[in-house]
Amino acid sequence: MPGVLRLVKHLNAHKIPIVVATSSLRNNFKIKSSNNQELFSLFDDITCGDDPNVLNGKPAPDIFLAARAKAGNPPVSQCLVFEDALNGIQAARNAGMHVNPNLAALYPGDNGATEKKTIELFLAKLISSKKKSTYTSCYYHSLMEANKSR
């Protein structure tokens, strides 16, 4: 995702807790992340799929709740998840967290068509909604609706 290193550096500099929650096993994650040490060294913690506090895989919320605990247990309403898989999006929602899906990773090769459709649907749903608390719900349902039209 463009701008990730800049965002992570900003959060780190401002002492905002930031953690990784990956379904990968710790040894696999170490191998996959070995070329990005600058980025991953800025995180407060990395929770992997083989963490003892992760009893169930995604879409269960376990991994996000375990990562949240390592970040000091902020209210779930203050947690933002960046996710590149549908099971992960659902897991974040199941944890009660806000989620920002990486649509380019979810739908490679569609030249942004799903992302464009999701944004159009999201804006329409958000504009028609009277409640601000529906942001995450509107986005998720827009993504699911756009996915159906593929």
UniProtKB/TrEMBL annotation:
Name used for this protein in its record: 2801_t:CDS:1
InterPro entries per the UniProt record, alphabetical: HAD-like_sf (IPR036412), HAD-SF_hydro_IA (IPR006439), HAD_sf (IPR023214)
A molecular function GO annotation: phosphatase activity
Highest taxon in the source lineage: Eukaryota
Pfam families referenced in this protein's UniProt entry, alphabetically: Hydrolase
Record SUPFAM superfamilies: HAD-like
